[in-house]
Amino acid sequence: MNTATDLGRRGEDAACRYLEHEGLSILARNWRCDDGELDVVATDGTRLVVVEVKCRSGTTRGTPLEAVTPDKLERVRKSALRWLSAHRIGRVEIRFDVIAIEWPPEGQVRLHHLRGV
Questions:
Q1: Which pTM was predicted?
Q2: In Å, what is the CA distance from 69 to each residue of 46, 51, 88, 91?
Q3: What burial letters (b/e) apply to 11-20, b meaning 16+ CB within 10 Å?
Q4: 25-33 and 110-114: which strand pairing?
Q5: Cα–Cα distance between 77 and 57 in angstroms, integer?
Q6: What does CATH list as the number for 4-114?
Q7: Over the stretch 79-117, which tens digit does the pLDDT of each residue have?
Q8: Cα 18–34–46 angle (5° rounding)?
Q9: Could you tell me how many helices (H) and strands (E) the chain has, helices first?
């Protein structure tokens, strides 16, 4: 992996494959608005699932989960409201998840899925 962008893209690809394997349907990836970006928007049955994906190759800058701060979750929440409005979706049950991926240059990739954060 050459850059943080490459690592992020690979992490999001891995997260989407995992989510599809778990039975979710991917609706959108990397959706941007003034409030921020949604990494993945999916459905799990009738529930909308907004997923923040964090991928790190090492822990020098902290673990992937440590990068998901309360401020980040608030930006994700605001962006999700914008996504709903932009797609003219009314009342719907929403779940916010985090997928944290540790992808060391050598060694086993570890994916952690936290539901309902």
A1: 0.89
A2: 28, 14, 29, 27
A3: bbebbbebbe
A4: unpaired
A5: 26
A6: 3.40.1350.10
A7: 999 999 999 988 889 999 999 999 887 878 899 999 999
A8: 40
A9: 2, 5
